Amino acid sequence: MSDDIGIDLGTTTIIAYNKGKGIVLREPTVVSIDKNTNEIIAYGKEAHRMIGRNPSNIEVIKPLKDGVISNFTVTTKMLKHFIKKILGKKVFAPRLMICVPAQITEVEKRAVIDAANTVGARKVFLIEEPVAAAIGAGIDISKPSGNLVIDIGGGTTDIAVISIGGSVVSTSIKTAGNKFDETIIKYVKKKYKTLIGERTAEEIKMKVGCVYPREEEATILVRGRSLDSGLPVEIELNDQEMLKVLLPDALKIIEGLKSTIEKAPPELVEDISEKGIYMTGGGSLLYGIDRLIEESTGVKVMIAQDAISCVAIGTGKALDNLDTLDSKSNK
Fold first, then answer.
1. Where would you tag: which of 8, 45, 132, 152 has the fewest CB atoms within 10 A of its CB?
2. Which H or E run includes 30?
3. 213-259, pLDDT tens digit by residue?
4. Which band of pLDDT confidence, cut at 50, 70 and 90, is reported for residue 52?
5. Among residues 154, 173, 197, which one has the least CA distance to residue 285?
């Protein structure tokens, strides 16, 4: 087994790829802390189960926001915990390839590198999320030909035109999976005067959420807390109202896509017209978003086979091909 590890350090999920073994870790990017002792008591899935159910002395924290580190200390401890979990009893220091949003600042890059060095990495490389997504989707990015990738994660949507191993033009917008959830929570609160949690909003998004008309009607019964009585209530939501609620957010992604295409050289745009647009990330599985993009751009859209894991797989595979990566994509 190689000691090279590729990490998709996402806002909502951390996924790790180990050469020779494939995906070896998939955990929520969440930790819970005892506020009295300031010690971390749970990571990942165990901490995620506490969301909305934690007592006052336990704080549930998401140490990344919009794809970047917002709490350095907690992120470092979380990385150390998960890397130890991957390596087991092995004592060697791994090489790490970590993905970052397309439009990350130098300060934010340094925070990721410092966090990786703190956990004892032998060497640290960074790669832009859309570049990693393209590699993970099996696209040959080494040739002088344009490839357009949209990676819709939890905190950011990263859009890039890739050629000869790197991003030619890229855009990173803060409308992604979490924003869709927030929009649903706000809608239910305003329309039904009912409070629901993040997990309920995500379930609604998956079951009846859409940004293009569904072929069959879909409804869901969800429970929340009435703002009027303070008591539990049950409400029914359907796909048609979710379409109206989520479409404005989806259109922001399309605006970012069109802006990226407009900045690309004409030769690469011609390549994209022939090859189509590749979509990755959990957000690409929102019902109808591929058809909406296809209709809005006139370019065929393909969702990667393992859309959720594409970035992590590409991040790991990139360690085999460091020479093909653009200097902007690794440090």
1. 45
2. none
3. 999 999 999 999 999 999 999 999 999 999 999 999 999 999 999 99
4. confident
5. 154
Enter the tokens of residue 179: 């924003």
How far is 149 from 161, CA to CA, in rounded Å? 7
- DSSP notation for 192-240: H-EE--HHHHHHHHHHT--SS--SS--EEEEEEEETTT-SEEEEEEEHH
- ∠ at Cα 305 (259, 26), nearest 5°? 95
Q: Which positions ≥6 away from 58 have C-beta within 8 Å?
A: 32, 33, 34, 35, 41, 50
Domains of the chain, each with CATH number or no CATH: 4-133+312-329 (3.30.420.40), 140-175+246-308 (3.30.420.40), 192-245 (3.90.640.10)
**Of 157, 160, 156, residue with least CA distance to 139:** 160
Strands (E), the chain: 4-9, 13-18, 22-28, 31-34, 39-43, 58-61, 64-65, 68-69, 95-100, 123-128, 147-152, 157-163, 166-173, 194-195, 219-226, 232-238, 277-280, 301-303
Stretch (H or E) spanning 130: helix 129-136
Please give the angle made by the CA atoms of 112, 306 and 139, to the nearest 5 degrees: 80
Rounded Cα distance between 141 and 268, Å, is 12
Question: Using an 8 Å Cβ cutoff, are 221 and 238 in contact?
Answer: no
Backbone phi, psi, residue 30, to 5°:
-140, 140
- Amino acid found at 73: T
Q: 154 with 11: CB under 8 angstroms?
A: yes
Token pair 């570049």 in the structure block, residue: 131
Token pair, residue 329, equals 């994509």
Q: Check: pTM over 0.85? Answer yes or no.
A: yes
Can you point out the beta strands (E) in 35-138?
39-43, 58-61, 64-65, 68-69, 95-100, 123-128
